[in-house]
Amino acid sequence: AAKHSGRKRHRFFKPDMNTAVISKMLIQQGVRDAMARNDLHLAYQPIVDLQSGEILGAEALIRWHHPEKGNIPPDSFIPLIEKTDLILPLTLWTLERACKDLTNHLLPRRPCFKLSVNISGAALKEQSIRDKIHQIISSYALPAHTLHLELTETSMMENIQSCADILYNWKGTGADIWIDDFGTGYSSLSYLHSLPIDGLKIDRSFITDITQIEGNQVVETIITLAHSLGIETISEGIETTIQQQFLQSRGGHYGQGYLFAKPAPLEQLTHILDKESVHEPL
Ligand code: C2E
Ligand code: MG
Ligand code: MG
Ligand code: MG
């Protein structure tokens, strides 16, 4: 095939070729290699009950350790991979690995542990992802509501009607559905009640804004909205006790952030869980 595409290739690499296109190709190949070479890992960040201080669960976050370039943050490769077919095997890799760790290490320590996995909006259109989620949940015999699938608000709002149908179908797997980065995607609020949503993750940018105990009006409004919809909230990116206290006082359910713990390898999470079960709350 290389022979036949000789002319095409020449044309393809014309001098004005965009460097963004080149880096997209390099990253695509890099991720393919990383999957094959075992250079991908999951980090886990605890999610804490803001009222009791106890650990509810954790979010699985992908990590790529490149042999030469070192750690490559997900924000610099996931958005590119989302534009390619590779997002499907990558999403499935994350899901499978997360459920394996959940079954072997987390549920034995906490039978009610909730594990959040990020699902790219690109996967919404793939029937095979829904079936794979179902397959994994059945094969590991995961209890219902153990797995939280996080989808960004933006990806859901692209086509609300088909998204509602798809998510109702996904709910049949037993997983819960959460809206990630909520507040940044210009949701039509009137549509929210038509989606089978279990919770809202309030975007970090609003939490960062809470610098005084008076807090932030947007955050308060989102928490009130969630209460009125009968769903829960997780506040992302809590770094200060002022933020924690404000969210707690306004009825925020759960929180996640450097104040509690940074994302870290599985062993660190199991260590925290083992310590917590003795008597030390996080
Ligand atoms: P996200 O799902 O909104 O994840 C939360 C991000 O906030 C994580 O960044 C986390 O490390 C960071 N974070 C948590 N607490 C704090 C804090 O207190 N302060 C600050 N400054 N940051 C905090 P991370 O791990 O770099 O991931 C970035 C994004 O990449 C994620 O945002 C998610 O959209 C995407 N991503 C990560 N893993 C996966 C994955 O397995 N699949 C897919 N499709 N996307 C992923
Ligand atoms: Mg997330
Ligand atoms: Mg988020
Ligand atoms: Mg985010």
TrEMBL record:
One of its GO terms (biological process) is signal transduction. Residues 24-277 form the EAL domain. The keyword Cell wall biogenesis/degradation does not apply. The keyword Transmembrane applies. Keywords: Membrane, Transmembrane, Transmembrane helix. GO terms for cellular component: membrane. This is EAL domain-containing protein. It comes from Pontibacterium sinense.
